[in-house]
Structure formats: structure tokens, C-alpha cells
Predict the 3D structure of the following.
Amino acid sequence: MGEVAIRILILLGAALQSGCSNPGRAPQTSPAHEAAVPAVAPDTTPSWFYDDSSYTSSSPKNLKRVIGIEFHKGADLAARKQVVRSLGGQVAGGWRFSPTREGLYAVLLPRAQSLSVL
């Protein structure tokens, strides 16, 4: 498999205001769900993204244990799955901002205690 170019972002509260607001469910932690990486970023976010307790207390407020991943156009599904799996993450939701961009996967890192895991 070739090299996959990605961009990883720390999700800020402001990013949630500009994207999709379709509430979903909190992610499951089963191995089958961890393997579920859609070919395109989902256009939903779980309801817990909007709870105050889901954010750090520092400024700026970051969504706890969630990173955003944007793949370059043309990245295949196998590569997307490999990146999410290598981080020990699971897709919790995402945003599709426009038809010309790949969209942003919101990936939950359930075991992350700090950014040093990246």
C-alpha cells in the first residue's frame, strides 16, 4: 500500500459550530465497530459532542479524546482503515463541508490521555 497523506486536527468547539449538526449515538466499543470506517466521512455527530463534559477545561476548549482526520482525495478505504486502526481509534462521526472536499472524520481515541499518543 502506498503512502497516504492525511491531515490531523484537534477538534475545537468552534469547528462544531460550522459543520453538520445531525445528532447521532455515542460510539460503541465493540471490535466490529472499531473496524467500521466508511469510504467517505460521515455527516453526523453523536449527541455527546455537544455536552459540556466532553470538552477540556483549558482554553481553547478541545473535544476530549477526539481528533479530526481529513484524507487527501483518492485515498482508498484500506488506507483509511489502516490509519484509524493504527491510532487505536474508531470513527465517531464527521462532517462533509462541501462536495469538493473529502470531509473530516471525527475519530475517538478511547484510550488517549494526552496528545502524545499521536
Q: What stands out?
A: Confidence is low (pLDDT under 50) at residues 12-30. The CA atoms of residues 55 and 63 lie 4 Å apart.
